[in-house]
Amino acid sequence: MKQADTKLSKVVTGFAAICLTGTFMVLSANAAPDIPQGFDSDGEKIFKRYDNTPLAAMTGTDGKRTLNKYYELRQYPGSPPRVPHDVPTSFSGDTLKCLSCHERGGYDPNQDAYAPVTPHPEYVNCFQCHVPQRTEKLFVETEWQSIKPPKLGLSEMGGSPPPIPHSLQIREDCIACHTGPAAVAEIRVEHASRGNCRQCHVPMIATEIRKEFTRTK
């Protein structure tokens, strides 16, 4: 009788241990349900893009997009680019159709080019920021002067990872812009498979702050 009670006690104890372990795992998952361990919210976005992007899309390139063409579509560095092509009337204001090309990229025979991948597919009202160009003439004369684009390659040492020269607002997804056939040639990276970009590349807060630090012998 005592032996049966001992076995039953062990079974109950083991079952309780399993339940407690499961409860702990559930509570841990609920504390950060969508963020993989070791990533912040922005790092998660990069990881998901990397995980869902075919290798061919990350390594291929056509070299047609350059920084000059990139800035031609923007009023100033960092501004939303205008739509450089005709918007089909079949869209009828349905900007979700923009994502049919720009969510994952792909070759467009009408444009004879690869569609750039948007770094923020969660914002589905595309025409709120990106608008087609209706005319090349100005409505009124203007003295507008654009700000200069950020300088590239500001590494502290030769061969060290360069800092990120732009803000990360709605541009957290590094892989979307820096890899693939539609990536700008001058800023296209060859190591997208590493995934966690900001493990090595950190935002450059301000040029003035960088000047305060000097390397000592």
Describe it:
The protein is built from 7 helices and 2 strands; from the N terminus they run αααααββαα. It is mainly α and 217 residues long. The chain is globular, with a radius of gyration of 25 Å. It starts with a helix and ends in a 6-residue tail after the last helix.
Secondary structure tally: strands: 2
Looking at the structure, what is the overall shape?
globular
Q: What does the average pLDDT come to?
A: 75
Termini gap: 80 Å
Spatial sequence of strands, sheet with the most strands? 1-2
Strand content: under 5%
Structural class: mainly alpha
Compute the number of helices. 7
List low-confidence stretches. 23-33
Structure keywords:
two-stranded antiparallel sheet; mainly alpha; 31% helix; single chain; globular; 2 strands; 217 residues
Summarize the structure.
The chain is mainly α. It is built from 7 helices and 2 strands; from the N terminus they run H-H-H-H-H-E-E-H-H.
